[in-house]
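User: I'm preparing a small set of examples for a lab meeting where we compare how different chains pack in three dimensions. I only have the primary sequence for this one, and I'd like the structure in token form so I can line it up with the others. Please keep the answer compact; I'll paste it straight into my notes.
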Amino acid sequence: MSPAPSGLLLSAATAIAAGLMGCYAVMRRMTLAADALSHVALPGIGIAILLKVHPLAGALAALLAGATFVWALEQRTRIPTETVIGVVFSAALAIGALLTTSEQLMDALFGGPGALAPWELAAGLVGAGAVIAFALLAKDRLIVALVSPDIALTSGINVRRLDFFYLIAFAVTVALGLRYLGVLLMGSLLIIPAATARRLGRSLTSMFATSIGVALVATLVGTYAASALGQETGPWIIVTAAACFVLAAIPRGRP
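Assistant: Understood. Below is the structure token output for the 255-residue chain.
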């Protein structure tokens, strides 16, 4: 059975958002932290199931709360972002495991496409569009703040507010991919295309373009392969992305 067009549209939009946000995560050296942050969704999913509301609503609420907590704690204590996220991740994973049954836990960890309701498609496209707009419109400010926070401050950039919006956009991106990739695999779609693009890109623009391209190829090829084989989409998407990274990492012979 062929994938539904609405599902492909949303997964493609999510891939574009993930490709862009992943580049910032790689440049900020947040590769492991990015994967850990996705696990914060797990207790939100568990609480949503207990309250009989949509699991993705609970996941989004938990991710936004987690991102806000990480930002606030980092600002108050000056502990590195990846350290704070690592602590929050461990606690979230333990709480989520306590709140969900084994079957529900597997669904949350690995995802499953299912059928998209019209409101889910609309909300997903709006969320992806917002993330993409932020990633492109705030590009210069994010890069300056990344290179030198002091220069960013003297240039009139509110670095604290920018960091907050970045973490919120990152949390929304994770939420967008949970249906297809689950808690365990969504972080990989953020990191692997960006890591591949860093290997291949010769400029910042080419890095963004390559990351988006790899994320899109992995998502579409993985979705069609899983559909043809009657398997879950998440593992196939990540395997395809990982194959792109391996190909990019192969040393090239000098002419």
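A couple of notes for your slides: The two ends are 46 Å apart (CA to CA). The first helix runs from residue 5 to 27.

User: Perfect, thanks.
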